[in-house]
Specification:
With 414 residues, the chain is an alpha/beta fold. The protein has a domain at 3-104 and 187-252 and 328-413: Rossmann fold. The chain has helices at residues 15-28, 52-61, 72-75, 79-93, 108-120, 123-134, 139-151, 154-159, 163-177, 206-216, 222-229, 238-244, 257-265, 278-287, 294-301, 308-320, 324-332, 350-358, 375-399; strands at residues 3-8, 32-38, 41-42, 46-47, 66-70, 98-103, 183-188, 339-344, 363-364, 412-413. The two termini are 21 Å apart. The mean pLDDT is 93.
């Protein structure tokens, strides 16, 4: 049987994601879909709007065969780190024949050509990149402009300014570096733009759904939520959304404002944390007395050279205690040390048997089964559990619901 892998956040799951699952199976001829998904914190350095187990169950209802959690140090990393973590995870499972990703660019060959340049880093490109960075451009802008100058194609800069294209290129770079047999398959993004904040008539973006929830949460009942979202999310997920609305979601960055403020007040330097440079650490120290909230502080710290997203990731890493040293240690070893299963379809349970037989990673269905002698595995799992417990604590406080420790949560099976 053929298996296709998907790299996702589902923040939240919408009709475009359902299309992605169905189209991936159609294009590849796959019988099964393995999903690697960010947990309770996502790549933009924010908490997911819904808990990971809820998002995983929706994915299973909508065609996923099994959903695994991407460790939080990769899930909240830069595009390159996120892609490295996700692609190597799919590869190490040992059962994935192809992985399918969406992008704004319709030509896989264009993305592959750019990925080769960024992997090989020719001298003229590197010199131009350094010059642009010294002139004050942010890294994403400098890289896009340097690439366009190197290839002589102005369209390449436009390609590099699209968020899904950036991730797609990083997936292809990671695929090449790990010498995987998995075949890359591209699907052109359909419907609303990634950054759209208004619900559209066709395939609203995750951003627009999050924006709707944030704007109307206090004035919306579960019934009204169903009415407003019925055209934007799969029908068979509406009951889960109704049951969880204002009980387990929505969750926002500013839900963690006091937690982050505590973390910023308890240390005198922060450059040991992932994505925190010495310059950013000093800026945090100099401005922390002006702290009001998570989002306000991101805006306050933002400069021409340091983007809002980079700052939100850095602050999330401080809050979750994700250090540069630990992540580098994981990357120098096996990158992954377990495959944490969030859920699976019972009628496709044979997939788990195949993973147990072929995977280079131990299948983790009970967190207590972690190898106590593997220091990397214990360290990574401890960080993952801390992130999830912190998220669950915020949910419990926000909606006055019982706290459920990560070790108590069960694998979902439908």
């Amino acid at each position: 049987m053929k298996t296709v892998g998907l790299i996702t956040e589902y923040n939240p799951f919408h009709n475009g994601h359902f299309y992605h699952i169905q189209k991936a199976k159609e294009i590849t001829g796959a019988d099964r879909v393995v999903v690697i998904m960010s947990g309770d914190f996502v790549q933009r350095g924010q908490p997911a709007i819904m808990p990971k187990h809820l998002r995983a169950e929706i994915a299973l209802r909508c065609g996923a065969s099994a959903v695994f959690e991407l460790p939080v140090c990769y899930a909240t990393g830069s595009a390159e780190l996120f892609a490295t973590g996700a692609v190597t995870f799919l590869d190490q499972l040992g059962v994935v024949d192809a992985f399918c990703f969406g992008s704004e660019c319709s030509e896989l060959s264009t993305l592959q050509a750019i990925a080769r340049i960024l992997t090989e880093e020719p001298d003229p490109y590197v010199r131009n990149l350094k010059s642009l960075l010294q002139n004050g451009l942010s890294f994403p802008s400098a890289r896009a402009r340097a690439l366009s100058a190197f290839t002589g194609n102005s369209c390449d800069e436009e390609v590099m300014n699209q968020p899904n294209n950036i991730l797609a290129i990083e997936y292809l770079k990671a695929l090449s570096k790990c010498k995987s047999h998995m075949a890359p398959v591209q699907i052109t993004r359909q419907g609303a733009d990634y950054h759209d904040t208004a619900l559209s008539e066709y395939n609203s973006s995750a951003s627009s759904i999050r924006h709707y929830l944030e704007k109307w949460e206090q004035h919306t009942s579960p019934f009204e939520l169903s009415c407003h979202l019925s055209e934007h999310v799969p029908t068979n997920s509406l009951d889960l959304l109704n049951d969880g609305f204002q009980k387990s979601f929505p969750v926002y960055m500013d839900t963690f404002s006091l937690v982050l403020k505590y973390c910023l007040l308890t240390e005198d330097h922060f450059e040991q944390y992932q994505d925190v440079s010495a310059e950013l650490s000093n800026r945090i120290l100099n401005l922390r007395n002006q702290y009001q909230s998570f989002t306000q502080f991101c805006e306050l710290l933002k400069t021409k050279e340091i983007t809002y997203t980079r700052i939100s990731r850095a602050l999330t890493h401080i809050m979750l205690r994700i250090t540069e040293c630990d992540t580098e240690h994981y990357l120098k070893n096996k990158i992954h040390f377990y495959a944490h299963l969030l859920g699976f379809r019972k009628d496709e349970a044979d997939l788990l048997s195949e993973i147990k037989h072929r995977s280079r990673l131990p299948l983790l269905t009970k967190l207590t089964n972690i190898d106590p002698t593997d220091n990397c595995a214990r360290s990574m799992l401890q960080t993952d559990c801390f992130a999830s417990d912190l998220y669950q604590s915020a949910v419990s406080e926000l909606y006055l619901t019982p706290f459920i420790n990560e070790y108590q949560k069960q694998v979902i099976h439908i």
